[in-house]
Amino acid sequence: MYRKQLIEKLCLGLTLAWGIAVLLSSPVQAEQKQRDIAVAVDGQMVKLSTPPVTIANVNYVPLRGVLERLGVSIMWDQGTETLRAEKGAQKLEYTIGQSYAELNGQALFLSSPGLIRNGTVMVPLRFVSEAFGAEVKWDAGTRTIKITSDDKLLSSISAEPTGNTAANLMNNGYAVQQGEWIYGLENKENGYASDSSGGYLYKVNAAGGDVTLLLAEQARKLNIRDEWIYFLGSGGIYKIRTDGSGLTELVEGVYSRQLILMNNWLFYNTDDGIYRLQVDRVSALPIRVLKNSEIDQFTVSRGWVYYYGNPDAEHMDTLARVRINGTESVTYGKLDYEDITIHKDYIYVNYYVEEESKIKTGRIPAEGGPLEYLLTADGFNIAGDTLYYGLGSIIYRSELDGTGSRAVANLEHWGIPLRFVMLNDSLYYEKSVFDDNDQYASAVYAVNIARKTGRSLFGKVLPTEKKDTRHLYPYDDDEKVQLAERVARQIVDQTIRPEMTQREKIKALHDYVVANTAYDYDNYLKDTAPAISYTAYGVFVEHTAVCSGYALAMDVLLDLIEVENYTVSGMAGGEGHAWNLVVLDDGHYHLDATWDDPVPDTPGRVGYKYFMISDEQMAADHEFDMEGIEELLHRQDMPDETKITFE
Q: At what angle do helices 547-560 and 502-515 cross, to 10 degrees?
C-alpha cells in the first residue's frame, strides 16, 4: 500500500535528525551536547528515563518515553526483541536490528535500525512519532525536539466536510463549485460520470460559457480547496490545480470508494479500512482510522466517521461510527443500506426493504435511536435544511422530516444509478438516451430550480433518442413495428374528433379496442398463446390478444391523445392480469379493456363495468398494490410550471 510514497516520506523525515547531528563535531562533543537536548510533546516537557542518543546522525529516544505520551499502547517481546505498538487501528511492528518495520502490515524500510542501549529500547524518534500521526520539529534556539501529537493536530479538522458537501459526495461528487466556476466530470463516450467509473474533468463558468478540459483521465469524488482539486483516480489519490496544472499523486496504489476533504485532511477508504492523511505536511503518513475490509460507504461529521459495511450471511450491513482518532466505536444495527450522509443530529440513509421490493429513505438519531421512515425515494440529497429526493424522473423537496413534499422538477431522463448533486440554487444530474446503435449515451445537465431552466453543463449534445417501441412488437422486426405505429395513428385519426372531451376520447378508444379485438381464449386455456398476443401489435394488426396486449394498446393510444396513463399489473380471477390507470384533472381511474370484452368474443359488444372506475370499485374483484398506485401518482403529481425546459 503506497510503499514508495511512504519510503520517500521517511527519507524526508530523517532531515531533522541530520539537522541536529551537524551541530555536533565529534563523538565526545555529541555526548556533551545531547544532554542539553530536550523533548516536548504538545508543549509539555517529557521526562525521559534515558537521555536522547545521537548515533550516525539519527536521534534515538527511549521507547516508552514519547510513545506513551502520544497515547500509543506498547508491547515488547523480550524473546524476539520485537516492538508492537498501536493506537486505534494504526499498528506498528518492529524487530530490533532489522532495516524495516511493518505499518498496518506494509513493509517500511528504515535507513537506521532501532537498538538496545544499556538495557533500554531506543527507537528513531521521527519515524515512530510520525507513524502515529505526530509532527516533529527542531527548535534550534531552545535545543528542543518539539512534537505535536496526532490528537492535537486533529483539532484542525472542521466539524463538516469542506471540499464538497457530505450529501454530494454520497452521490459520487461528480460536480463541485468554487466561486463562479463549476468543476465537474463527464464521460467522453458512453457511460456515466455519476456512477463509480467517473469521467474526464472539466471546468465551466456557472453562468455558462466556454468549457475547459482539465484532465483527460477518469476521475471520481471531487473535492476543492483553494487552488487545488482533490480526486480519486484509477490508481490512487491525486490533486490538480484549478487551471489544470500541477497534477500530483498523493497516495499511490489504492482504489478507494470515497474521498472527503476536511480543511487540510483527506479521508478515504482502501481494501483494509478507512484512512486519513494530512495533506499539508510533506512527511505525513496515512493514519488508519478503522480496520475493516468490507466498508462500502462512509461519511465524516463532528469528529466521527460514520460507515456501513461488513455484510453477513443475510446480506445485511452494519451501520456504525468510530471517532476520527480510531477510538470509541458505536454500532446502530443491521439493515440493507444503500446510501448514508449526516445532517445536524441525524444519520440519513437509503435502505432496501426486500419484502416490499422498495428503496426507502429514513433517518436515525446520531446519538442512537430507532430508524424513522421518511419517504420512498430512489435517491436523495440534502442542501441547507431541505431534503431533495427523486422518484423516477421527478425531483421533490420536503422538510428534513419528510413532510411538506412537493415536486420541483421533471428531469425526463436519468443515468444509472440515480444520483444528483446540489450546488447553490442548481441541481446537477446525468441525462441519458438510448441511441440508434442501441448504446446509452449520457451528459451532465445543470438545472436551476428557481428559474426552472436547464442546460447541458459541458456542451455535450446527446443523439436523438430512439423511441422505445418494444411494447408494440417484442422482436427486432422494424417492418412490423412501423406497421403497428401507422395503425395506431390511423385509429386515433378515424376515432377522435376535436370537439370531444378527454373522457369522450378515452371512451372512443376503449370502445375501438374492445369491439375490434378478440380475447385469445383458446390459446390462453392451453397455455399456448403466442408472444404476439401479449403486444399492442396483436390488437392493432392481428385483432387478437391477451390482457397485456389490451393494456399496451390502450397505453399507446392514450399516449397519442396526450392522456397521462400507466399500465398496472395485479391479479384478477386468480390469475396475473394487466390493465390501465388513467389520470385526469379530477383524479385517477382504472380502465380494464380486457374484462370489458366478452368471452367468447361477441362482435360489436362493449362492456363498461371496468371503464373509468375508482380504486375501491376496482378492488372488488381485482388485486393490486394500492400503496404502489399512490406512490406512482405522487411521483407524477407535479404542476406544469415546475417542468424544466432545456436551452
A: 140
Three-state SS at 265:
strand
- Residue 325 belongs to some domain of the structure: yes
Q: Which residue, among 463, 433, 410, 368, has the nearest Cα to 643 in the 3D structure? A: 410
Cell of 204: 465551466
Instruction: Say if pTM beats, i.e. exceeds, 0.85.
Output: no
Non-local CB neighbours of 266 within 8 Å, separated by 6+ positions: 223, 230, 237, 250, 259, 260, 276, 277, 279
| Same-domain check for residues 319 and 411 | yes
Helix (DSSP H) and strand (DSSP E) numbers for the chain: 13, 48
C-alpha cell at 576: 396475473
Q: Look up cell 452494519; give the residue.
A: 318
**Structural domain span for residue 593:** 478-613
pLDDT at 353 over 90: no
Phi/psi at 229 (5° precision): -105, 125
pLDDT classification of 418: cutoffs 50, 70, 90: confident
Do 310 and 183 fall into the same domain?
yes
Same structural domain, 404 and 485: no
Please say which residue of 125, 155, 185 terminates a domain: 155
**Same domain, residue pair 288 and 433:** yes
Does residue 468 fall inside a structural domain?
no
pLDDT-based confidence at residue 647 (cuts at 50, 70, 90):
very low
Residues in Cβ contact with 524 at an 8 Å cutoff, skipping those fewer than 6 apart: 546
Q: CA angle 528-534-537, nearest 5°?
A: 120
Pairing state between β 248-252 and 273-278 = unpaired
Report yes or no on 618 lying in a domain. no
Q: At what angle are helices 478-495 and 547-560 packed, to 10 degrees?
A: 60
In a shared domain, residues 150 and 173: no
Question: Residues 133, 247: one domain?
Answer: no
CATH number at residue 72: 3.30.457.10
> Cα(59)–Cα(17) distance, rounded to whole angstroms?
5
Give the integer Cα–Cα distance in Å for 129 and 47.
16
Three cell numbers, residue 549: 396486449
Using the 8-state DSSP alphabet, how is residue 312 labeled? Answer: -
Question: How many domains in the chain?
Answer: 3
Are both 47 and 108 inside the same structural domain?
A: yes
Range from 545-549, 579-583, 604-608, 635-639 carrying the lowest mean pLDDT: 635-639
Query: What digits encode the pLDDT tens for the residues 499-556?
Result: 999 999 999 999 999 999 999 988 877 878 888 888 999 999 999 999 999 999 999 9
Which among 387, 422, 456 is the end of a domain? Answer: 456
Contact predicate 296/309, CB 8 Å: yes
DSSP annotation string for 349-371: EEEEETTTTEEEEEEEETT----
Name residues whose C-beta falls within 8 Å of residue 510's C-beta, 6 or more positions apart in sequence: 554, 591, 593, 596, 606, 611
The whole-angstrom separation of Cα 43 and Cα 137 is 12
Whether 350 is covered by a domain: the verdict is: yes
